[in-house]
Fold these 2 entries.
Entry 1:
Amino acid sequence: MEFNDLTGDERTDLQDQIRGLAWAFARRAAGFGGASPYDRALLRRADGQRVAETADLTPDDRRNMYLARLRVLGIMQSELDRAADLEAYCAGAEGANFRELGDAWGISRQGARKRWSSLRAGPDAGDRVRLTYGDGSGCEGTWEDTPDGPALRLDDGTLRAHVTGQVCREVIERGAGDA
């Protein structure tokens, strides 16, 4: 599967949304309640000017704000890791192999195998695999990773490329490189 990276604008939007989400949860953790520290600082300003920067906050409010957001970002990281593990498990259950998981996560096949070592993903190169198609027909062979994507090398030497989609893949025997 081919993945398109986020554009610079999309990344900026994602970062803004992550910061906003972290701030929404951190307000409570920092003791600011439903109001932001910007509102608290505004109440302290006698001239009534709008507070535009954290420099207008008290040092205690700034420290508490950053510490609360850092704590929430740490929790978010943990939850994102948990969500990634779940997605990897689901993709593996649907037949994705460690190369495909690595491509999706932006790491090598070996990196994916290390990260999700407890996950038994779909077939890897060298595995003996049985394919069953929607019409009931099937074949067996050795799984290969080719430049054009995964394929099955049949016992007669033929390379079968149609190994994804409406196909049931069953690993019959793990290859020697999968210890």
Entry 2:
Amino acid sequence: MAIQSQVTMLLNQGVLAWNDWRFANPSVFIDLSGADLHGAHLTLADLNGANLSRADLRRANLTNALLGGATLTGATLSHATIKDATLPNANFSRADLSGADLSRGRLEMVDFSHATLTDATVSGTLMDANFSGADLSAATLGGTLTHANLSRAILRGATLSGADLGAATLTCADLTHANLSDANLSGADLTHATGTTPEQLAQARSLQNTPSELRSLRHSCWAGQVLTRLFWVEAVVWGALLSCSNRTGR
């Protein structure tokens, strides 16, 4: 359970006093687990290494907050604003981040495994981030996701346009209706991924070093588009010839 004196200080004395106290007491363990912090204004708050597991942070403002190494397992952060935050090695496993804004963040090696990120915006530096089993339906995922783990992630209707997914793991991921336009999938592992279509893969910027069957899907899509245009040209030409023939016959 949370240390109530810490909760009271953070909410009643404000972020400036909190940060000063943390600077003066760097070895004190921060336990805000299960605390009711919904709607709290925590911009620039120093929460590095804090225990926020199961905390209620719905609609909280954590813009520019420091959450490196913090534990937020099972926390509720629906519609929270976490823009420009510093979160390397933070643990959001099984947290509810639906509708949250995590844009432009430092999210290296963050654990989002089995978290709910439906309609969320997640962008920035996400190298080695773990999204395994996470629900990213209709989410916007961008930035640098090299070596990220998205195995078994649900990406239905997600927007990954322009994302760098080089060497990312997307095994068994659900990519139904996902937007992959201009995404870098070079070296990505899409083994047993579902919902991919030739049209989707044709929009990706790069599939270099991805499994050959995926590259062939994209090439078949390009070939299909070329053939469709050729058939259209042929139809126009034949139509013109028939028209000329009918006029000549008259």
